[in-house]
Structure formats: C-alpha cells, structure tokens
Amino acid sequence: MSAHPFDLGGKVALVTGANTGLGQAIALALAAAGADIFAVGRSDPEETGRSVLAMGRKFANAHDELGPETPFAQLVADCVAKLGALDIVVNNAGTIRRATALEFSPGDWDAVMDVNLKAAFFLSQAAARWMVERGRGGKIINIASMLSFQGGIRTASYTASKHGLLGVTRLLANEWAALGINVNAIAPGYIETNNTIALRDDEARSRSILERIPASRWGQPSDIGGAAVFLASGAADYVHGAVLPVDGGWLAR
Questions:
Q1: CB contact at 8 A, 231 and 237
Q2: Which of 37, 93, 112, 118 is deepest in the core (most CB within 10 A)?
C-alpha cells in the first residue's frame, strides 16, 4: 500500500520530449514521486537521465522523431523490455510553426499536426492496447495549451492541434474510463520554454501577455510537475477527461 496518494513508487512512466523544458520537468517530478522514466524524443535526454538516476530511479530512452513513421507499438514494447512495465504516458512532445493564416503552408500544417496530435493519439492507443491486454489500468496525460481554448495568432496548425488534443482527451476518457485507464490533460499557460522564445523576444507581445497573467510572471517548467504527479497518481483515480490549467490565472482574467 502506498505511503501517500501521490506515491508513484514501482510505476513506469513514458514521457515524450523529456530532454528539455516541460517534458524534462515532468519527468523529474514523476521520478521524484517514485516512478522510473522512459524518455522518447528526437534528441539525447542525457541531462534528464543523469538527474533521474541520481534520485535512485531507473531510466531508459528511445530516439524517435514522433512523426508519420513512428512505430508506436515498438516504443511501448521497448519501454516494457527495459523497465518492466508501462503505467503512465505523458504526451508532451510538441512543435510549433508561426506564419499568418494567409501565408501558412501545408508543410507547416502537417509537421505540427503529426507531432502534437497524431503521435499523441497513436502512442496512447499503443499504450492502452498493452494495458488492456494485461488487464491493468494506467494513466495517460496529454499536454494541452492555452490555445486549446483560444485562437491565438500566427499559429494555425498549433491551435488546431491543441484544440484537437483536448477533444481526443475527452473521447479517450469516454472510451477507456471503464477499462481503468484515466485520460486527462494539463493546459500550461505561458511558460519559459523553447516554444515561447519568439513571444518573449517580442517586447510588446511579451509585455501584453505578462499584463494579463494575475501571477505577474511567466511560468517555469517546474510549475507543471505537481499537476503531472497528481494526474499520474492514485489521487486522480476518479478523474477522467479533465483539463487542468496551470496558467498563473490567465484563463480567470
């Protein structure tokens, strides 16, 4: 029996995009709560791995671009082969392309949708199939966005993908809740990551964003970790299809 409802001891978490930013912060928070980590991404998560191992957890990783050719079932099989199970999936990997709607290209549309929406769905599907075949439940956490609720500007495919991801979260919750698989989402606000460099470098845009955030600051990747631990833990066993904003109060303004 767990010492507390947020204890992830003995669990295995697969986290995409765990080499930096939000994914790294989420992986470290899950590891601090007791989980072993399987990182999937296009670059070497060496720093993440060192930190996870330093906590006394197990760590393994797989290199994949999370595109149209990704073998999702094989990623799940690799995780299980290296760490013994799969209990938690965090679909964090994401990309963005910026251009006006009049200039947006099909290539920029597909590049974002493939990673942000298609990969999240089919990795979830592969993980759920493994869980269902073994008669065990699990936790799936999708990383949504403020642009799951709003339109934004110059981010056509990103906005579409994040609206879609919220819909898929609810659909999967409807289908899988009775199977013991919890599917929920976290919607980060404006966080200091690689994806927001362009916004933060635009002095006027950055100022207008900051003026709307009640907390009066940009978020840090570590601000997302506690929400991920909650949704991955037994404390969230009756939470299905929810989206948890971690936004400094942005949506409340």
A1: no
A2: 37
The superfamily CATH assigns to domain 12-245 is NAD(P)-binding Rossmann-like Domain (3.40.50.720)
| Distance of alpha carbon 108 from alpha carbon 33, whole angstroms | 37
Cα separation of 186 and 189, whole Å? 10
pTM for the full predicted model: 0.96
Determine how β-strand 59-63 pairs with β-strand 138-143.
unpaired
Determine how β-strand 36-41 pairs with β-strand 12-16. Answer: parallel
- For the segment 84-122, what is each residue's pLDDT rounded down to a tens digit? 999 999 999 999 999 999 999 999 999 999 999 999 999
* Segments in 4-118 forming alpha helices (H): 21-32, 46-54, 72-83, 106-113
Write out the H or E segment, with its range, that includes residue 128. Answer: helix 119-133
Q: Which of 158, 176, 218, 230 is catalytic?
A: 158
Q: Is 238 a catalytic residue?
A: no
